[in-house]
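Q: Hi! First time doing this. I have a protein sequence and I read that you can turn it into a structure. Is that right? Here it is:
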Amino acid sequence: MANGRFISYLRVSTAQQGASGLGLEAQRAAVAAHLNGGRWELVQEFMETESGKRADRPALAQALRLCKQKKATLIIAKLDRLARNVHFISGLMESGVEFIACDMPAANKFVLHIMAAVAEQEAEAISKRTKAALQAAKERGKVLGGRRVSVERFAEIGAEAREMRSEKAKDFAAELLPTIEDIKAKGAKTLRDIAAALNETGIPTARGGEWSAVQVQRILARAA
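A: Yes, that's right. Below is the predicted 3D structure, encoded as structure tokens:
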């Protein structure tokens, strides 16, 4: 159970998402699920519409300052809500502010640093592969019709991949729902209780890991 003071930081990448609330409610739900139970106080919530590649975020800077003043912990739904830049993550850790990501609450600062480094390297690799593919097509004499056409095709491929992952996730949730209902019938009252019961039975998550309250919430949302 959580204890102490917390300050939440929510981020969306586009103005449209910020205006519609798309993504924000899911982040709020993840934070609420992580803080489920215990003696805690959510001092303030900060929300920002920014690119994940930028490190100069006014709302995040304000959140960090308030964390220092109130001796609070910064809480976010996912690590990528902060940035996929190893230097930015490193600077945040050196600021002295304690922070926690709901999707990996047990991870220490060393693990977070490694994950940020891997994410940054992956982003650079994708950029290089894209440029190489475009150059190869150009050398073969293929008329690309400008960068816009290539970007649209990459967007289509990404959308198709996301749809496939979404369908698999829904199937997994549907199969697991009866087990969760049985656990609830046996007395589990909170998302953390259900996660603990799933871990005790040895049932892994879709990625083969252990269950958390946030993951249980996602399963219930997908199965709804």
